[in-house]
Amino acid sequence: MIEPFARDLAEHGRTPQRRKGILQLIGNALLVQQRVAGRVAIAEKPDVLWEKPELDRLYSRLEDEYELKERLDTLERKLAAVSETANALTDIIDTQRSLRLEIAVVVLILIEVAMGSFQLLAGRGH
Protein backbone atom coordinates (compact mmCIF):
# COMPACT_ATOMS: atom_id res chain seq x y z
CA MET A 1 0.00 0.00 0.00
CA ILE A 2 2.87 2.35 0.73
CA GLU A 3 4.71 1.76 -2.53
CA PRO A 4 2.37 3.75 -4.85
CA PHE A 5 2.60 6.81 -2.58
CA ALA A 6 6.37 6.48 -2.38
CA ARG A 7 6.64 6.07 -6.16
CA ASP A 8 4.50 9.17 -6.82
CA LEU A 9 6.58 11.13 -4.33
CA ALA A 10 9.83 9.96 -5.92
CA GLU A 11 8.72 10.52 -9.52
CA HIS A 12 6.73 13.74 -9.21
CA GLY A 13 8.12 15.28 -6.05
CA ARG A 14 4.68 15.56 -4.52
CA THR A 15 2.03 13.40 -2.97
CA PRO A 16 -1.31 12.67 -4.61
CA GLN A 17 -3.96 15.27 -3.89
CA ARG A 18 -6.13 12.67 -2.16
CA ARG A 19 -5.55 13.55 1.48
CA LYS A 20 -8.17 11.03 2.48
CA GLY A 21 -6.13 8.25 0.87
CA ILE A 22 -3.00 9.34 2.69
CA LEU A 23 -4.85 9.49 5.99
CA GLN A 24 -6.29 6.03 5.38
CA LEU A 25 -2.80 4.73 4.67
CA ILE A 26 -1.54 6.25 7.92
CA GLY A 27 -4.48 4.71 9.78
CA ASN A 28 -3.77 1.29 8.27
CA ALA A 29 -0.11 1.57 9.18
CA LEU A 30 -0.99 2.40 12.77
CA LEU A 31 -3.47 -0.49 12.93
CA VAL A 32 -0.87 -2.95 11.66
CA GLN A 33 1.63 -1.63 14.16
CA GLN A 34 -0.83 -2.00 17.04
CA ARG A 35 -1.98 -5.48 16.02
CA VAL A 36 1.51 -6.84 15.62
CA ALA A 37 2.93 -5.14 18.70
CA GLY A 38 0.06 -6.45 20.81
CA ARG A 39 0.49 -10.03 19.72
CA VAL A 40 4.25 -10.28 19.73
CA ALA A 41 5.83 -10.99 23.08
CA ILE A 42 8.63 -13.19 21.79
CA ALA A 43 11.30 -11.45 23.83
CA GLU A 44 9.51 -12.47 27.01
CA LYS A 45 9.33 -16.07 28.11
CA PRO A 46 5.83 -17.48 28.65
CA ASP A 47 4.40 -17.45 32.17
CA VAL A 48 4.14 -21.23 32.15
CA LEU A 49 7.94 -21.43 32.39
CA TRP A 50 7.81 -19.75 35.78
CA GLU A 51 5.36 -22.35 36.97
CA LYS A 52 7.12 -25.34 35.32
CA PRO A 53 10.87 -24.69 35.07
CA GLU A 54 11.44 -28.12 33.48
CA LEU A 55 9.91 -26.74 30.26
CA ASP A 56 12.64 -24.10 29.99
CA ARG A 57 14.93 -26.39 27.94
CA LEU A 58 12.07 -27.22 25.56
CA TYR A 59 11.27 -23.54 25.12
CA SER A 60 14.94 -22.76 24.45
CA ARG A 61 15.09 -25.45 21.76
CA LEU A 62 11.88 -24.21 20.15
CA GLU A 63 13.17 -20.65 20.30
CA ASP A 64 16.32 -21.71 18.44
CA GLU A 65 14.47 -23.97 15.98
CA TYR A 66 11.96 -21.32 14.95
CA GLU A 67 14.52 -18.50 15.07
CA LEU A 68 12.22 -16.42 17.24
CA LYS A 69 14.80 -13.75 18.08
CA GLU A 70 15.74 -13.27 14.43
CA ARG A 71 12.09 -13.05 13.44
CA LEU A 72 11.48 -10.52 16.21
CA ASP A 73 14.35 -8.38 14.91
CA THR A 74 12.94 -8.53 11.38
CA LEU A 75 9.47 -7.68 12.60
CA GLU A 76 10.76 -4.74 14.64
CA ARG A 77 12.60 -3.38 11.58
CA LYS A 78 9.43 -3.64 9.50
CA LEU A 79 7.38 -1.93 12.21
CA ALA A 80 9.98 0.83 12.41
CA ALA A 81 9.67 1.31 8.64
CA VAL A 82 5.88 1.51 8.91
CA SER A 83 6.18 4.03 11.74
CA GLU A 84 8.69 6.16 9.83
CA THR A 85 6.45 6.12 6.77
CA ALA A 86 3.43 7.21 8.80
CA ASN A 87 5.47 10.01 10.38
CA ALA A 88 6.76 11.14 6.98
CA LEU A 89 3.26 11.22 5.51
CA THR A 90 1.87 13.22 8.44
CA ASP A 91 4.78 15.65 8.09
CA ILE A 92 3.99 16.04 4.39
CA ILE A 93 0.32 16.71 5.15
CA ASP A 94 1.27 19.26 7.82
CA THR A 95 3.64 20.99 5.41
CA GLN A 96 0.99 21.17 2.70
CA ARG A 97 -1.54 22.58 5.15
CA SER A 98 0.97 25.17 6.42
CA LEU A 99 1.77 26.23 2.87
CA ARG A 100 -1.91 26.75 2.06
CA LEU A 101 -2.35 28.76 5.24
CA GLU A 102 0.67 30.95 4.42
CA ILE A 103 -0.65 31.57 0.91
CA ALA A 104 -4.05 32.57 2.32
CA VAL A 105 -2.40 35.02 4.75
CA VAL A 106 -0.31 36.58 1.95
CA VAL A 107 -3.41 36.94 -0.27
CA LEU A 108 -5.33 38.61 2.57
CA ILE A 109 -2.43 41.01 3.20
CA LEU A 110 -2.29 41.87 -0.52
CA ILE A 111 -6.05 42.50 -0.54
CA GLU A 112 -5.71 44.75 2.51
CA VAL A 113 -2.84 46.69 0.89
CA ALA A 114 -4.81 47.05 -2.34
CA MET A 115 -7.89 48.30 -0.45
CA GLY A 116 -5.79 50.73 1.57
CA SER A 117 -4.10 52.04 -1.58
CA PHE A 118 -7.45 52.42 -3.32
CA GLN A 119 -8.82 54.38 -0.33
CA LEU A 120 -5.76 56.66 -0.33
CA LEU A 121 -6.02 57.29 -4.06
CA ALA A 122 -9.78 57.84 -3.82
CA GLY A 123 -9.28 60.27 -0.93
CA ARG A 124 -6.73 62.37 -2.87
CA GLY A 125 -8.98 62.61 -5.89
CA HIS A 126 -11.59 64.66 -4.01
Question: How widely separated are the two ends?
Answer: 66 Å
Q: Summarize the biggest pleated sheet.
A: none
Strand content is under 5%
Number of strands: 0
Low-confidence stretches: none
Shape verdict? rod-shaped
Helix percentage range = over 70%
Overall pLDDT metric:
81
Tally of helical runs: 5
The run of helices and strands is: HHHHH
Class per helix and strand makeup: mainly alpha
**Number of separate structural domains:** 1
Radius of gyration: 28 Å
Would you give an account of this structure?
This protein has 126 residues and is mainly alpha-helical. The protein has one domain. The protein has five helices and no strands. Helix 2 runs antiparallel to helix 5. The longest helix is centred in the C-terminal third of the chain and has 58 residues. 2% of the residues are buried.
List the helices and strands and how they pair.
Blueprint lengths: L1 H11 L6 H21 L8 H4 L4 H10 L2 H58 L1
Helix pairs in contact: 2-5
Please supply descriptive tags for the structure shown above.
single chain; 126 residues; mainly alpha; 5 helices; rod-shaped
In short:
The chain has helices spanning 2-12, 19-39, 48-51, 56-65, 68-125. The chain is mainly alpha-helical. The mean pLDDT is 81.
